[in-house]
Amino acid sequence: MQPLSPAEWEVLVLSLKVGGVAIVATLPVAFGLAWMLARWRFPGKVLIDAVVHLPLVLPPVVTGWLLLLAFSPNAPFGAFLERTLGLTFLFRWTGAALAAGVMALPLMVRAMRLSLEGVDRRLESAARTLGAGPWRTFIRVTLPLSANGVLAALVLGFARSVGEFGATITFASNIPGETQTLPLAIYSALQIPGSDSQVVRLAGLSVLLSVAALVLSEWLIRRSGQQRGRHVI
Amino acid sequence: MSFDIALSLRRGERSLEYAFTAGSGLTALFGPSGAGKTSLLDAIAGLLRPDKGRITVGGTTLFDSAAHIDVKPQKRHCGYVFQDLRLFPHISVRRNLAFGRKAYGGLDWDHTLDLLGIGGLLERMPATLSGGEAQRVAIGRALLSTPDFLLMDEPLASVDAARRDEILRLVERIRDEMRLPILYVSHDRAEVERLAQTIVPV
């Protein structure tokens, strides 16, 4: 098999960049939502839960179109972002990252929520009686006990981001070197007769990335289960 | 008065009322399982909010619904030995013991480890401890936070019969040497009669 061509390298690096930025930016939002859903009780919780899960059940092209409605420079919100933060998303790699992040959000929230719900609240109350306030309890008890789940969520979200297609092509378009991540490059190569070997290599790459992410997240989840199982007296 | 308590709290359908005062030494809350003894300890530790009433320990008011006093659990200086121990599973015995330790002016580390006989367990993880060892570590963790008073919830529950006497002697030493007011929950009459200066039926 031939080594990757410069164009293919560019696709790979861009995919990793888009996936990485997407999950790093989504992490705090996803963790906040997971915390809210796992720990708080408030009216309208079901609604928030549903909205968070929308990208999972909507056709990705609809999600992409909704992003277009919200973030295009012609839309009030998109114009506001451009004016205040200088952020533009259309036809930019940042748009690909935004689309990927939104698509990864439900998966990340689910995994983090599960791991937070698995933390024994009785250990938190023990920390409180030992003089730790809520923040110290969070840092020293809750976070370490849910850390593997949060990491697993990151890995899963990364795999989802790198594989994102429908919302990205709708919202950020398919521009080589700017928004053309692995799946989009495979799609483009499929349109050109005689580029079978390139399709095979790109598809192989994305299989490799996905399997690695899956194995890593499974391992992290299993490890956190073991750690929790060990704390019985 | 070490403990001066009058409060009511709701657990599910039931409304529980408590009222007692107790002097120094060890006070046993004695009664059948399900009588709400643990709920009372939780309320004193600040983990459970009573509907109304007052909790005063050693002259300090920790809760008073009429005066709107509700001291946060981390400010109550209470050493709570839970029935289910609640050792932190992700850190070593050493770090469990150090969790609530004051930076200075606290209880002497070596002396406490000696008293409890847990000096050899420091690098172990909680999951690898036997019932008696875990119980002593849990007591040590509470003591090393240098509390103003101690709450002990059925400390013999997770200990096999052969080790019960060892833990009982330990509780006696803590009672006599450290002069900490202790509120001790048990459903065992012999245990209570051996340890307690004051017995409060619940």
UniProtKB/TrEMBL annotation, chain A:
One of its GO terms (molecular function) is molybdate ion transmembrane transporter activity. It holds the Pfam family BPD_transp_1. Residues 12-220 form the ABC transmembrane type-1 domain. Gene3D superfamilies: MetI-like (1.10.3720.10). It comes from the Bacteria. The keyword Kinase does not apply. It is a multi-pass membrane protein. Keywords: Cell inner membrane, Cell membrane, Membrane, Molybdenum, Transmembrane, Transmembrane helix, Transport. The chain crosses the membrane at residues 12-38, 50-71, 91-112, 138-159, 199-221. GO terms for cellular component: plasma membrane. Coiled coil: none annotated. Belongs to the binding-protein-dependent transport system permease family. CysTW subfamily. NCBIfam families: modB_ABC, PRK09421.1. Part of the binding-protein-dependent transport system for molybdenum; probably responsible for the translocation of the substrate across the membrane. This is Molybdenum transport system permease. It comes from Novosphingobium guangzhouense.
Automatic annotation (TrEMBL), chain B:
The keyword Nucleotide-binding applies. InterPro entries: AAA+_ATPase (IPR003593), ABC_transporter-like_ATP-bd (IPR003439), ABC_transporter-like_CS (IPR017871), Molybdenum_import_ModC (IPR050334), P-loop_NTPase (IPR027417). It holds the Pfam family ABC_tran. Signal peptide: none annotated. It comes from the Bacteria. Residues 1-202 form the ABC transporter domain. GO terms for molecular function: ATP binding; ATP hydrolysis activity. Keywords: ATP-binding, Nucleotide-binding. PANTHER family: ABC TRANSPORTER I FAMILY MEMBER 10 (PTHR43514:SF4). This is Molybdenum ABC transporter ATP-binding protein. It comes from Novosphingobium guangzhouense.
